Amino acid sequence: MSNTASNLDPGLASELELKVAEVCRSVDVSEGVAPLIEAVQALLPDVEVHHAMTRSGWHRFGGVVDLDGNRIAHNITEWAESESDGEIDELLYKLSEVQYFATRLNGQTHYLVVQTGPLARDYIQIEIEQLQEVLDRALYDPDWFPDSIAEFVDPTDFPRLEPEPIGAPRLLFRRLVRVSDLMASPDTSSRLARFLDEWDRSSASEAEGGFCHHWVLSIREYQDRDGDGHMTAKPVPVLAGALPALADAEVARGAALANQIHGFDREAGYPFAWYFHMLTNRKVSHKLAEAVHADLMGAYDYLPPRDLKLLRDWYQDPYGL
Fold first, then answer.
1. pTM given for the model
2. What share of the chain is helix, strand, coil (3-state, %, to 5)?
3. What distance in Å separates the CA atoms of residue 293 and residue 95, rounded to the nearest whole number?
């Protein structure tokens, strides 16, 4: 049996994870993400690997380098704890005699998706991080006296340097998730299940490429008090920053409201988009859905019957993510 998206049992999924991790170690993305997409596509030649989106603007702690850029440590937290032996004053004394610098890892997350069936949940989501280590700050200032290792590692108010790159960007495999399996997990919230079910029941299901071409899941892993691992997931729109604003507290009515939501749908690229964005955007008041519902219970008729039914269900039992 070929290694296709539709027959990825847990064993084949694990094999694919290893192969994607190997791709991450070998692909050069210094000039863009296209080589990564091509390399992952080569692992799954029978289906389309689609680059849904890239999320940036996050970073992690890096390591320590000297004035000439030589590596002192890869992990600043572990290094600081080891060098201080639990005494922050001891660490500061050592640093007063050298010129060391902290680095940070500026990150992007590339979301690749593979549709495996007709439903919103029928897809595989592959997350790959792109990390670029840059200079962050000098490690020592004679007028700075942190109270703890935690404050030393992550100071709230400290002069930052120009983020000069240290080495080439690198890729790191983060996770591969079969969303259908995630939805079958007891960890999955009933609200997320309802969100995907409503997509399948609405006119949005006619969207080109399916749900995974328009949304990804932002997944967070955590451990409970017993040390057991869990996941939470929230839908994130692919075009969030490129769409027009939706009404908030002051909502139009009638033809003006109809034009507004249909205009939003056109920009998003699929019908009923305004509804799903309203469910996931805290800046958009639920008064928007209430106003549309009031219009359609009156003299207006600007939604198809299946979308109107979902809106009525929401009006009776409202929710958001």
1. 0.88
2. 40, 25, 35
3. 65
Which of the 8 DSSP states describes residue 247? P
CA atoms within 13 A on the CB side of 261: 26
The single-letter DSSP state of residue 130 is E
Token pair in block for residue 211: 């749900």
98 vs 63, 78, 92, 131, 171, CA distance in Å?
A: 16, 19, 10, 27, 32
Q: Which of 223, 291, 299 is nearest to 251 (CA)?
A: 291
The amino acid that residue 23 corresponds to is V
Query: If pLDDT is split at 50, 70 and 90, which confidence band does 7 have?
Result: low
Cα 147 vs. chain centroid, distance in angstroms? 34
In tens, the pLDDT along 183-200 reads 998 888 899 999 999 999
Task: State the DSSP code for 184.
Answer: T
Would you state the structure tokens that stand for residue 275, as one six-digit string?
A: 């509804």
Fill in the DSSP letter of residue 131.
E
Question: CA-CA-CA-CA torsion for 290, 197, 207, 12, nearest 10 degrees?
Answer: 150
> Amino acid identity of 318?
P
Neighbouring C-beta atoms of residue 140, cutoff 10 Å? 18
- For 228-262, give one letter per residue: b (16+ CB within 10 A) or e: eeeeebebebbeeeebeebbeeebeeeeebbebbe
Confidence of residue 5 (pLDDT cuts 50, 70, 90): low
Measure the CA–CA gap between 54 and 102, rounded to whole angstroms.
Answer: 26
| pLDDT score of 186 | 84
Backbone angles phi, psi at 115, to 5 degrees: -75, 135
